[in-house]
Design brief:
By secondary structure, the protein is mostly helical. The protein is elongated. 12% of the residues are buried. Helices cover 75% and strands 0% of the residues.
């Protein structure tokens, strides 16, 4: 017999952590726009702590579902439940969990784009644009020899 209350509780805790991470992501975006690297680092550390807690809850969720003989997806979990208030409650939590995770993913993608733009504006080199040797324009002498003799390397 499935412990629906425990499964719902684990999902509620996962939702709370994702919502907490959303707050950190929003704060991180503000810090990114202000170029506040100290605050960005603080938010990243808090997000990592949330992610570690989420891993523990995920293991707990999987153990509860395994004990109930229910496969891993939310749809399969709900399909294994009889109609009633427990199913409605869990379905609501899962819907909010899915929405919060999607919002977090979109915020994170936006933050990556902002960071890339700042790197380009500030003269940084994007990883995909960086030379494979890790050299920039001002290190040409290293690339072609101490005297800068290009012909010697051809």
């Amino acid at each position: 017999m499935a412990d629906w209350n425990s499964l719902t509780e684990v999902h509620e805790k996962l939702l709370a952590l994702i919502e907490e991470m959303l707050g950190y992501e929003q704060e991180k975006r503000q810090a990114l726009l202000r170029d506040d690297t100290v605050r960005i680092e603080q938010m990243l550390q808090r997000q990592q702590a949330c992610a570690m807690q989420m891993e523990t809850l995920e293991r707990q969720r999987m153990m509860l579902q395994d004990a109930a003989g229910i496969p891993g997806t939310a749809e399969e979990l709900l399909a294994g439940m009889a109609e009633g208030p427990e199913k409605e409650k869990l379905a609501g939590v899962l819907g909010r969990l899915r929405a919060a995770a999607g919002e977090l993913r979109e915020l994170n993608k936006g933050d990556l784009e902002i960071a890339r733009t700042f790197l380009q504006i500030n003269g940084g080199i994007m990883p995909e644009a960086a030379p494979s040797r890790g050299l920039d324009t001002y290190q040409a002498a290293k690339r072609f020899g101490a005297d800068g003799g290009f012909e010697q390397k051809i």
